[in-house]
Fold each of these.
Amino acid sequence: MSDTASEPVSSAVRELVDANHILFDQGVVDGFGHVSVRHPSRPDRFLLSRSMAPGLVTERDVLVFDLDGAPVEPGGPAVYLERFIHSEIYRKRPDAAAVVHSHSPAVVPFSAVTGTKLRPIFHMCGFLGAGTPVFEIRDFAGSESDLLISDGRLGAALAASLDQGPAVLMRGHGSTVVGSSLHQAVFRAVYTEVGARLQTEAMRLGPVTYLTEGESAATTKTNNTQIDRAWNLWLKAARTRSMAT
Amino acid sequence: MSDTASEPVSSAVRELVDANHILFDQGVVDGFGHVSVRHPSRPDRFLLSRSMAPGLVTERDVLVFDLDGAPVEPGGPAVYLERFIHSEIYRKRPDAAAVVHSHSPAVVPFSAVTGTKLRPIFHMCGFLGAGTPVFEIRDFAGSESDLLISDGRLGAALAASLDQGPAVLMRGHGSTVVGSSLHQAVFRAVYTEVGARLQTEAMRLGPVTYLTEGESAATTKTNNTQIDRAWNLWLKAARTRSMAT
Amino acid sequence: MSDTASEPVSSAVRELVDANHILFDQGVVDGFGHVSVRHPSRPDRFLLSRSMAPGLVTERDVLVFDLDGAPVEPGGPAVYLERFIHSEIYRKRPDAAAVVHSHSPAVVPFSAVTGTKLRPIFHMCGFLGAGTPVFEIRDFAGSESDLLISDGRLGAALAASLDQGPAVLMRGHGSTVVGSSLHQAVFRAVYTEVGARLQTEAMRLGPVTYLTEGESAATTKTNNTQIDRAWNLWLKAARTRSMAT
Amino acid sequence: MSDTASEPVSSAVRELVDANHILFDQGVVDGFGHVSVRHPSRPDRFLLSRSMAPGLVTERDVLVFDLDGAPVEPGGPAVYLERFIHSEIYRKRPDAAAVVHSHSPAVVPFSAVTGTKLRPIFHMCGFLGAGTPVFEIRDFAGSESDLLISDGRLGAALAASLDQGPAVLMRGHGSTVVGSSLHQAVFRAVYTEVGARLQTEAMRLGPVTYLTEGESAATTKTNNTQIDRAWNLWLKAARTRSMAT
């Protein structure tokens, strides 16, 4: 990857590989799903693996894309069909430094039901705030699509649904979260999954008391100072069990 | 296995061993369940392990069967009681290149209840289409059987219930899925289990929006191009944790 | 263990150690629970570990007990408080060759609720038959006991509740299963747990069709010929992950 | 850690490191949560790790704190924001020798719902007694707090809610348990989580019969003599899988 030879870029590539392995090790992604990070010196570009399972990604699999979702170097390997999730969010959201898209198992059910919103049930997912929007792709691609964000128009529609929030659910598909840093995006992806599981269990026990908007804001502010405590653990765990070579 | 010495056959045997280990590693089979692949040059034959736990199968355990479910080489080791699941599906379905039978844990409950159908809740199991039929063995073997597909007549009845679909549930027993390739059959077996779990969770949260038939068709078409992304990951995971020697 | 030096006994001891490790590895026991086997040549005696976590048991931890639950060799290490579960079942049931007592997690809820019986939902737990009795210790020890089967009188009451069946639940405590061989008892302990989990999930989806008594009998007869397919897998898995030294 | 050089203290430090690793290995803590033990010779002090994931704690990360929650040695590393949970419980409860705070996943739902109390469903969590109180931080910090016990006043309020009991739930946050020894506190933390999971499952099956107060007292008394059976297993498991270096 000639474009990634400078030191800040190599460092971003290495961290992106770590993020891929963490998300796999924590059960957020399986063979599918992907994570990207904005280019450290070119805000109109972002780094994303070629099309492959995140758990197997290595540094040499990372490519540079522009905000149209096109690889900067032509003639490269196959790329993710849904790279437009990333490109359009980076275009719309200057604050977004990283994006995670997944089909994490506790979250998908919330994308597919009516009448229940994914909300912050405990302080670790306070960032979910007043509740997570659900993107219904039928409104943009009709009722016979393959549900994928397979072009810039659909990416822009998804980004509009995400708006200024941290996360958006995608009906019958999964979710996408953003962060102001790669570590924050990974943290949010893991705790969106954890929170979804807790909410599902709590709803069987009785009426749930969710965080207030004030509590959401305050817990988010505090948690933002604690993200690396989790990252360091997850990184060690991912490296211990890594299958990528 | 003299009959498996030619190169295409040895290659099929090796992949079948991988499929056995993947299905065990992904939790689709435990000590029971089995996977077969049609013989690469003799469509009236198929490859299937002798009777043993899939997680322990090696190349030397693979046998060749004919479409009556009989081992081609006489005097061999004990064979699966339910090999007729495979033989009758290969007989009825020229398009079937591989068959997986399992008791995967999220699917069994759908086989045993009335009023709820296993349906595609997200794009990864779009292949489930308009819903999965349930084979009630009582209609063919009475209400005192051991529930097993233990002869050709029951195998044919199961194949008829499967019809042209990708999967059939078996009441109080498990399920059987078919694929136009071994990789596709394994992919479907894993995502039938994943989808069943997601549907079970979603049903507690509220009314579920399932994929339309158009979405099912479109997601299946797209996913068929992505199967090896999962296969490559699962194979690496299975090899890392393999117990077969 | 001088009393276990003869070859049939050493062999029984080795298999009992394997059974301990399998039950731990399969999640049937945690730090608590125990498994015993009747003495191969002295039907009035049985083999059981000293008081310790099953996952850590070695051959030198196995002791011989009589049918009063007393260790045959005096002055030995601390023994399980609930050895009377084993002694009284061996006394009452000449057909019982092995006994497993556990707090396996999917089964405990069935012990503690009224109105729902643990029943065979799929062929692998056909042995559960017409449903599993629940032993209410309050009927024998009052409502301020520690719930343990801590003497012969309570052991006899539990054995009476078990009667001629394969399994009995113990309210607010766990369950006990018996087998005509050690392998069968372990098989039943694992599939009682598996079946309980499946039934719990199925009950959310709709009315459940359980196995008929005829199906229970027929599946049990067939499964009894297949037990070692599972045992061989579980043994390999337990040895791979063993922590006992 | 100069203050921890004497033999009883070094021994307490080593056990505290073990406790950290056990709680992580048993799934009670993830990147967050913490465990402390009272200083063996100075009851007005306690030992607690610096701010980091419990699974990675080593002996050199353990610090000594006073009952105001201040590190005894100034100028040290960053400390847990919620050390006041520990300091105020040690101040209020002379019987408390160890404290575990966690967000263990089956317990959080009970903290966030109204109408359902966490109660002892089986003998292993008899210590929960008549039911576990829920601390609502809004009563003390208003409805816009970050939910953390971030000063002595909130710590004292939590300790008052805990009162003389073994455990207190914290709304939208987690739980805190105490023990008369480090082993007992860890035992209770694990079985609070196990019991919460069992209760959640049982509530779907039908009306639950919980332990009476007499049964709670009797099972607690018996279990207190059996704690090391679990501790020894958990320690071996934690060491086998340890990532701390």
Amino acid sequence: MSRYQKTDFPTHDIRRFLEPGPIVLVSSAHGDQTNIMTMGWHMVMEFSPSLVGCLISSGNHSFELVRSSKQCVINIPTVDIAETVVKIGNCSGSSVDKFTEFGLTPKPGTHVRAPLIDECYANFECELSDAGWVNKYNVFVFEVVKAHVATSPKLPKTIHYRGDGEFMISGTETRKWRRFFRPGML
Amino acid sequence: MSRYQKTDFPTHDIRRFLEPGPIVLVSSAHGDQTNIMTMGWHMVMEFSPSLVGCLISSGNHSFELVRSSKQCVINIPTVDIAETVVKIGNCSGSSVDKFTEFGLTPKPGTHVRAPLIDECYANFECELSDAGWVNKYNVFVFEVVKAHVATSPKLPKTIHYRGDGEFMISGTETRKWRRFFRPGML
């Protein structure tokens, strides 16, 4: 598996990678445990502070790690590790050390204890910003406090889940409708 | 512009079209006004009831129409009307009748007064389920009470926004990793 060379990225602009809707990997740490889960239900909520709403089902082993540590990393995997992403979503951190099992490299963050997944295209270090809907909907609102993004390629080939084992792989990138935007609306 | 032939679709399975993260059009009606807005910040929140979290900025003309009527329709446009989608996002319903301006066909729903956009691939009729985060985050939680989806093609070619006038167009569809899913995890 390749490891991307990464650079700091402005946290207010992470919608560039999250708004198109890829499956992401959420990594967490609490006490002596770490874990990784796949997540498809997330939304950008604000540019600055950089807020992201995430649904982490209470049935997941990651739920308690994230709730207790009040931190996580949102990692963006690309199509080259799609098989690993699926397998991560189909086993539980209660019985498997996912970094070891899947040969992924945990890398220290600068702001959170949760490990970055080195093999992912981008890593967003997150602190829990609002737990008000955790009990009601399993929705966590995170603030992205530090973003690391690969320097190349310019845009990632991401995977987008449709349910029932089907994925859409991100396709063509285009700016051909850019001229129809008013400057303030970009 | 083409109009899709549509059929009823199970509301608990609309993640099939929303989870991959397309730009959607939100149509609304209140009193004698209708409107359409583009929306990129949304997330699936539950299968059944079929809940979707949506961020509708209070600066949008649609905000008051949706808040007052407690209804909307989430419409999924395809790449063939991308230019129209961008233009819809770059003018305000306070000065433009968007159905007329853009030659779109409002079609009556079965459960809500807000009009379906006939030229879109899918239409999800929504009722406001939770307004608890409307003031705090401009987040509306809707329940999809009726779904209409095109019978053909099987999957839509959707557009996914990255900001700065750039779009990703949905690419290849694949089930090649389906064998790595445990049955209960599909």
